[in-house]
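User: My advisor, Dr. K., asked me to get a structural model of this assembly before our group meeting. I'm new to this, so sorry if the format is off. These are the inputs:
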Amino acid sequence: MNQPEQNTSHAPKWVYMFGDGIADGTAEMRDLLGGKGANLAEMCNLGLPVPPGFTVTTEVCAAYYDNDRALPEALGAQVDAALAHVGKVVGAEFGSRDNPLLVSVRSGSRASMPGMMDTVLNLGLNDETVEGLAKRSLDARFAYDSYRRFIQMYSNVVLGLEHHRFEDILEAAKDDNGYALDTELSAQDWREVVAGYKALVEEERGEPFPQDVHAQLWGALGAVFGSWQNQRAITYRRLHSIPDDWGTAVNVQAMVFGNMGETSATGVAFTRNPSTGEKALFGEFLINAQGEDVVAGIRTPQAITEAERRINGSSEPSMEAVMPESFAHLKAIYEKLEGHYRDMQDLEFTVQEGKLWMLQTRTGKRTARAALKIAVDMAREKLISRQEAVLRIDPSSLDQLLHPTLDPRAERDIVATGLPASPGAACGAIVFDPDDAEQARNAGKPVILVRVETSPEDIHGMHAAEGILTTRGGMTSHAAVVARGMGTPCVSGAGAVRIDYAAGTMTAGGHTLNKGDIITIDGAAGHVIRGEVPTIQPDLTGDFGVIIEWADKVRRMEVRTNAETPGDARVAREFGAEGIGLCRTEHMFFEADRIQAVREMILAGDEAGRRAALAKILPMQRNDFKSLFEIMSGLPVTIRLLDPPLHEFLPSGEKEIAQLAEAMGVDPEIVARRIGDLHEFNPMLGHRGCRLAITYPEIAEMQARAIFEAAIEAGKTTGKAVIPEVMVPLVATRAELDQIKERIVAVGEQVQGEAGERLDYLVGTMIELPRACLGAGDIAKVAEFFSFGTNDLTQTAFGISRDDSAGFLAEYIRKGVLEADPFITIDRAGVGELMKIAAERGRESRPGLKLGICGEHGGDPASIGLCETIGLDYVSCSPFRVPIARLAAAQAALRKN
Amino acid sequence: MNQPEQNTSHAPKWVYMFGDGIADGTAEMRDLLGGKGANLAEMCNLGLPVPPGFTVTTEVCAAYYDNDRALPEALGAQVDAALAHVGKVVGAEFGSRDNPLLVSVRSGSRASMPGMMDTVLNLGLNDETVEGLAKRSLDARFAYDSYRRFIQMYSNVVLGLEHHRFEDILEAAKDDNGYALDTELSAQDWREVVAGYKALVEEERGEPFPQDVHAQLWGALGAVFGSWQNQRAITYRRLHSIPDDWGTAVNVQAMVFGNMGETSATGVAFTRNPSTGEKALFGEFLINAQGEDVVAGIRTPQAITEAERRINGSSEPSMEAVMPESFAHLKAIYEKLEGHYRDMQDLEFTVQEGKLWMLQTRTGKRTARAALKIAVDMAREKLISRQEAVLRIDPSSLDQLLHPTLDPRAERDIVATGLPASPGAACGAIVFDPDDAEQARNAGKPVILVRVETSPEDIHGMHAAEGILTTRGGMTSHAAVVARGMGTPCVSGAGAVRIDYAAGTMTAGGHTLNKGDIITIDGAAGHVIRGEVPTIQPDLTGDFGVIIEWADKVRRMEVRTNAETPGDARVAREFGAEGIGLCRTEHMFFEADRIQAVREMILAGDEAGRRAALAKILPMQRNDFKSLFEIMSGLPVTIRLLDPPLHEFLPSGEKEIAQLAEAMGVDPEIVARRIGDLHEFNPMLGHRGCRLAITYPEIAEMQARAIFEAAIEAGKTTGKAVIPEVMVPLVATRAELDQIKERIVAVGEQVQGEAGERLDYLVGTMIELPRACLGAGDIAKVAEFFSFGTNDLTQTAFGISRDDSAGFLAEYIRKGVLEADPFITIDRAGVGELMKIAAERGRESRPGLKLGICGEHGGDPASIGLCETIGLDYVSCSPFRVPIARLAAAQAALRKN
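Assistant: The format is fine. Below is the predicted structure of the whole assembly, which you can bring to the meeting.
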């Protein structure tokens, strides 16, 4: 332990007092006092009853480390003076055997680092003061329990002994007495445990447990400062980009006890209802109890207000009824704090022998629904502005409101947990085969499609299912991406689930479930649940609508949607989408009525054969586009030319190959050979995207024709034409786009000639390769718009396949190598810089170049912030994320100003 | 046709005359006169006998396009004057029926664009002048053949009629007469063909073939200028980055004929022997013949010198003997030209009625061997400097000299052609299985390993084989990369070869070959040849050694090698490698004595199991490194930690899985499941590189220990320790390297403590991901060196898998989308910029950071030039490319100064 060295020289102010209605510090002094210290000071300055104490500043932390982990010599006098003052305020004395002052010693840094550093409670107890506490509390059992807790905590934090050594002693004591629970131990039993603890410390340390309360305090101060550099804290700082040199402050505060008889109590309260947002004091308390008792749930806490008691139908009296004075005091404090902090507060308080003490105030956590109501109410109360209200809502939290959710009151038999791949809850019978899913849907029976992984061949089954469960793949696996796009709940990568397709069974959590058995999945939590769990439908009216309306007033970027089915397009437009930013045409190729022609096209030996097959697909594609254009009339629609490698459209099983060969009237071996020829080691980096349009320009020509013809037709039916934006994927160089654009424009001329009508359209490109970002200046000479495909850009910039990343990315985040999954939030330093380079070079060579994003990140609030910084014109996201993106874009615009 | 408009205003000088020993232009006026025009002028200025003519400048080309494809009006008078002058020099007259002047009309742009634009020969012939030609040549057959050729060429180039229409008429004439060959046609027959041609033109055009020779000339001028914008020329320019606005000049030159009797002749000559480099006039000629006759091979050409005639053992007299005056003249000219151009010249000449005319001089093509001899000889003759000699050698051409080659005189029965994946020729019995290859090697029998594709499991068989043939994969497929690294000849991606593993046969070119049949492959040409073809062994002494010695004097960058076997390391050191830039440790993992332990490690369920298996591998790895360190004593050796995904080490077949399970004493299903768990969709972007070291740090620790222990041991045996450079692959962020370096340094401390010795080593990283290039400043704070892994950097920047690129990359190059295969030559605009960014940011944060390249590009001369520009410290390449890299690095240094 680092006793301060003796020195009489004049020292800086290292200790800031608080309590008794005044404080040396304020809320603004966060850098010096840490968050907790500054907040305690602020509450004192507001005149609130805070247990007195003092903060040892972050400068002491710096000095501690500069001085080879020794506390500065001159600190001693300041701490002694502060301790004496605290004792005076509470009428007790540190180390007094009659009326001992006990203190807590807690870290508190500038940024919140919950649980990362060490805490010591009940400091000031020794063999003598424990008797004083017993007398004062009239509860020897409580006093000795507190003492043994203090020894255990102190020995662990300050002396470095392991918890389990103490637990072993306690367990042995219980065994000896035949007790099952800690609560069965008497005061005498605890005395014996304390003796055992002290013997252990002496044995391990070669010296007794420190009885000198000042030595205890110095030890605790050194240990808490030292915990700034423990491994947990270092990792946390790396993850949250908190500089090492900030250091922590340490708060020493008088302990107060809510368990000193019937005039004592402890509780937690919210200034508004955190579930509903209703403006009413909400909380619970327990008489003659400590804070941990409220949490532990051994006794049922009582309501704070009478109103709440009535709602709960409780016979236990409310605080309002039994402690009217403390209640009135608390009520006044809550109004003061909410007004001061201008947000809903989460309070902790203790009543010690009739006196109310405030232990903490902080901004309260709340449900998404409550957050909306509170923000709208507070704006109407003029407590905050409308813009502040918009900024108060976490856009991601809206996801809860946009999908059905599990009834929180229902029981859940969770058999496995996977990744929360697509939010929402769904329930249905297990099917393992996409065809079965479709049949069940046609029979009106809800199903959950369970697959090891999904592929584009499974799309029809995914559409038909209420929910999707896969045992492999990450947050951006095929199943996850498609499910989010469709708004279908999905749990992916549930590795503990084993599927036996042949037997038609899955095993999970020790259960074997058969095809047809009912399961429920919670795509927001990643839970797989046996049986049916009731769900709650979303409600998007009221406060939700008000906030979104306020958000739209300040938003700069447009919000489009990624959609290719009329259903998705309609949902998105209802959610406020301002066009389509990405229509993936390959999804259309999988539809049952055309997959045969698609396969003929792929298997054709020459261009003529391909053109013949494409001619069959043309009218169907035209109709697809026409429906979309009608739904999106008057808005822009971006259509991406065929992107995936052709082998994705071909079957892989022997049986399916035989079926296809028969349908086409060719030798199965020829089909198998062609499939073999098309095999790729790394399909993500293979013959796909614009490379298809270079080698098979006839495919791009067919698609361009379908788009242009549909646009002219839809323009006639709706009277408000869309402006199609033809998007060429996976461009790396200008020359690729040059050649493909030439073909598209030629088709455009032809179609306009045939129709005798003018048609406005744009030809642009996805920017999804690092090479394209660097060459963007050149590419923009040809491209009329850029749309950032940040999924593939992240894959290529990092060299990580999103489908294969589940195996190591979670570990990367756990070990602090990556702050966040780059497939969820854009990596600013790498992918973000590539986007910035592309945007700058593109706009330099084509001023006013339209820029958007259509990767999954387009629906991620943090990434939307980056898009605003780069100056994109729009973001595009899956239909169910459109409202989230509208809010996030508004916030990004507000934060930029 | 674009007749010049009449206008009397003063015009710029558009026509530059040459001939008669003087010229308006010089060799320096390439921009205005094009390459051919400038060179013809230069020869005239040297006083050489060049058929007179004139050049219409590139400015006229610009005017032609500015003026909507019309020739400027004022050009007419200048051309007429020039024509008259030409006629005067040769004593003939354009359009004269007695003594007609015939001219050629040829394009000639600043940069050579061979065959891309149009040419018209024999212009000036019509129904009257053809008779004059017949009389002057005493050969009516020749005159009418020339006329019909002119009509055909003119009609095609100027009038846009297709060749085959004329061929049809000729074929019909031959059929009618029962002729098989053109040479059977008589003068009268040709007259009839001419009549047929003229009728065709009149029918198609509605007007007769132009008889006005001036109209012919205007038509040809317009057409040749117009051909600057034909598709071939546009594509060629795009591929070679030639600006569109350069335009072409047009050369009009008097025709001379070598077929005007026994005093006429035509021939080609080299100023030195292009095969051997010997300093002696070398060439062949034919009396009474035209240039095309020399090429056509119908008559056997005669030697030019007596010395050569004797060597050939020919009974036909030499030019020296039969035309002593012309020969003496030619000899004088050759000396003058070689002295003037300071390089070996390739000359074309014609003797018309005893007068020697020079038609062309250009730098002569030569074999690699000749190039070396000529460069060394010329430097010794003081004709060029030693630095110029170094710059004269194409580094890539050395490849021919470093490997066995096929005897050029031997017959070759080529059955298929693939990609020239690894140079050299090899011959052996066909085997389809790597194990068979190994057995055959042990039995002393040379084999060619034939596979659809190779994988790391096949390494032992690849080592054992004389050559490797694959039917799939590109220039950078596994087979190609490994083969080049081993210096083993390889033909990859021979798609026309079909392999039936089950039957043990391959089919190619209509032949079915069985296991055991002998084939030969030519890895420099991509040929697959049936049977045995004799080979010639390389010889690296003499001129080769001299040039490399001169090169080393001016080289700045070091040249290291990529090697992991003692054999490769030894070869590389003999070739002058200055260390190892890349030792791929995974190759060591496949050795038979350790693959079992590697697989145990992978299949182990926990860290303890992995550590137990790794302990078995440690001594073997240490010995591997020790051998390398001994061979490379005193030089740096860079060792890359394990890079490939673990599934590459596991078997895939059911039988092999069963064997492995038995050897390990576990259930085959467990092995199969683990293999299934490790499966990846895109292994290139999967769980590999430093991601393995993050999730299984124990592997990196074992490797670090093996490296450090080996370095200390080898230092003792050799007395000259290597400085090991531990290289962490596939780093994307600094945090990855932080964590791994910490482990490596900890092992380093341990090993040094155990050995009681100090050890110098570096820890650095591959830079092979775009994310790493952008974050290089941050990474360099930890990395002590960067080594650019340009294979993976190209794959990720472009989003192209090199293993899957064969299907479309060839088409990309054919269609002009890419100038070169980016896996062979670094893409400067994209990958090059990423490297530049990384080098700059890296050196900014760590001045003096060591930079190298270890991708395949390290042996590519063009890429080495880029490396010099970026300022790398070294390049590293496969052993057989070390001499090439030494020369290329020297050239890069010379070019930069």
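One thing worth pointing out at the meeting: Confidence is low (pLDDT under 50) at residues 1-9 of chain B.

User: Perfect, thanks a lot.
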